[in-house]
């Protein structure tokens, strides 16, 4: 079986057509209550009325389903396989169902559906992946699908505009908390393109200055302004965390901006932002195709080094390896259309990850000894993000080798 067939067979939820966020490696089904016996909750992210079983089923539904939808759309353009087009269309319908469910709160609310049920939780990363998937699939959707996208995409963005980009996030923040404004110009650009509503264009112009730097350039910021913590001093290096998540979001946003507004005065800064994030995360890729989820950069040499294990720091993952390396290389491959000078180092790392990781290697975390005992269940979870980004990366690498992104991505860019 190929990775795509395994994803379709195991990760697609037969009830919702969404892609599961995690599977139990032993059963290749969503983890049940027995799996989580004795497990510690996700700090700060507990949701009243929902168990860990509910939460892990579709925690990253927009990311996983959006990534798979893009991968299958790109595969369809390359291979003209009608099954790939059908898979992307089913993913669209699944996201549209969640969008309709969100109207229980307000039009455009994209709720996390823990246990298949409505919750009051959402996050902008789910919206970003969903919107990019909608844009990518639009040229190949039928008339009914296009109407859904034309309705859904502007509404998903308008939900945030109407609230001045304020909405609570689990137990971390109350309802008055404003999300980082750097995240919204790319979404506003898409909403304006699909709706023609000048409100979105005006908001885009108002917020665009927030995109001067990537949101998540931890290493650059630490070197410029940071004061070392006791942990960093003891280990003689700057500490960075969760590079895969950080790099992918910034790169996706800059990609949207550069495709739709390539002559903007800030466009050189957006390209620089892509390079900044790639340079910060690229060396976390390991020879076995995984990546370090937490890294130290030596104060003197700047070289990456591993963090100590479980006894050495107070973090959640302690630098454990993860198959979210597929997200790192996918962001790198997306970057090539804007920064082709990165080809050698991006393609080399992409070939390592795609060549080393098979389906059962796509775990959330490895190295259980690096996790606190109540979090070690995470090494027994297959990650939908890892699998779907593997598939997306594979298609991007094929396109790069064939055309250096002249086609078919150009078609995607010009459809509106």
Listing every helix as H and every strand as E from the N terminus to the C terminus, the arrangement reads: HEHHHHHHHHHEHHEEEEHHEHH
Give the biggest sheet.
Answer: 3 strands, antiparallel
H/I helix tally: 16
Q: Which percent range describes the beta-strand content? A: 5-15%
Rg is: 20 Å
- What is the 3D form? globular
**Secondary structure tally: strands:** 7
Residue-averaged pLDDT, rounded?
93
Strand order of the largest sheet: 2-4-5
Which blocks of ≥5 consecutive residues have pLDDT under 50? 407-416
Helix content: 40-55%
Query: What would you call the structural class?
Result: mainly alpha
Give the N-to-C terminal Cα separation.
37 Å
How would you sum up this structure, described in words?
The two termini are 37 Å apart. The chain has helices at residues 3-11, 52-58, 61-79, 82-102, 124-137, 143-162, 185-195, 198-207, 218-225, 230-235, 243-260, 267-281, 325-335, 343-356, 384-403, 409-414, and strands spanning 22-24, 237-241, 291-292, 294-298, 304-306, 321-322, 381-383. The chain has 16 helices and seven strands. Residues 407-416 have low confidence and may be disordered. Helix 3 (61-79) packs parallel to helix 15 and helix 4 runs parallel beside helix 6 (143-162). Helix content is 50%, strand content 6%. With 416 residues, it is mainly alpha-helical.
Topology:
Layout: H1 3-11, E1 22-24, H2 52-58, H3 61-79, H4 82-102, H5 124-137, H6 143-162, H7 185-195, H8 198-207, H9 218-225, H10 230-235, E2 237-241, H11 243-260, H12 267-281, E3 291-292, E4 294-298, E5 304-306, E6 321-322, H13 325-335, H14 343-356, E7 381-383, H15 384-403, H16 409-414
Antiparallel strand pairs: 1-7, 2-4, 3-6, 4-5
Helix pairs in contact: 1-15, 3-4, 3-5, 3-15, 4-5, 4-6, 5-6, 5-11, 6-7, 7-8, 7-11, 11-12, 11-13, 12-13, 13-14, 13-15, 14-15
């Amino acid at each position: 079986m190929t990775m795509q067939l395994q994803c379709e067979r195991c990760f697609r939820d037969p009830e919702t057509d969404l892609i599961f966020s995690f599977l139990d490696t032993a059963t290749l089904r969503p983890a049940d209550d027995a799996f989580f016996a004795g497990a510690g909750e996700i700090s700060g992210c507990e949701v009243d009325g929902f168990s860990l079983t509910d939460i892990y089923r579709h925690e990253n539904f927009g990311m996983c389903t959006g990534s798979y939808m893009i991968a299958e759309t790109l595969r369809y353009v390359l291979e003209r396989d009608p099954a790939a087009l059908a898979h992307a269309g089913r993913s669209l319908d699944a996201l549209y169902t969640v969008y309709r469910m969100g109207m229980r709160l307000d039009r455009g609310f994209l709720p996390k559906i823990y246990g298949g049920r409505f919750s009051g939780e959402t996050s902008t990363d789910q919206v970003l992946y969903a919107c990019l998937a909608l844009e990518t699939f639009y040229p190949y959707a039928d008339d009914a699908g296009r109407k859904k996208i034309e309705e859904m995409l502007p509404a998903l963005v308008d939900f945030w505009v109407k609230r001045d980009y304020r909405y609570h996030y689990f137990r971390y923040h109350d309802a008055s908390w404003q999300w980082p404004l750097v995240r919204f110009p790319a979404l506003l650009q898409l909403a304006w393109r699909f709706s023609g509503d000048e409100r979105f264009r005006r908001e885009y112009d108002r917020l665009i200055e927030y995109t001067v730097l990537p949101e998540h350039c931890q290493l650059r910021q630490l070197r410029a302004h940071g004061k070392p913590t006791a942990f960093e001093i003891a280990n003689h290096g700057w500490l960075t965390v969760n590079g895969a998540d950080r790099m992918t979001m910034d790169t996706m946003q800059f990609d949207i901006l550069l495709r739709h507004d390539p002559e903007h005065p800030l466009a050189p800064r957006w390209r620089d932002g892509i390079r900044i994030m790639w340079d910060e995360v690229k060396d976390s890729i390991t020879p076995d195709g995984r990546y370090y989820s937490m890294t130290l950069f030596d104060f003197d040499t700047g070289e990456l080094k591993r963090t100590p294990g479980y006894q050495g720091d107070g973090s959640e993952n302690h630098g454990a390896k993860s198959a979210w390396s597929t997200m790192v290389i996918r962001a790198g491959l997306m970057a090539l259309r804007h920064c082709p000078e990165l080809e050698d180092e991006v393609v080399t790392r992409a070939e390592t990850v795609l060549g080393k990781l098979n389906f059962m290697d796509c775990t959330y975390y490895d190295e259980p000894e690096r996790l606190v005992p109540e979090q070690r269940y995470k090494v027994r979870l297959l990650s939908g993000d890892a699998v779907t980004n593997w598939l997306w990366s594979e298609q991007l690498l094929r396109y790069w080798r064939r055309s250096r992104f002249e086609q078919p991505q150009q078609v995607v860019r010009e459809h509106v």
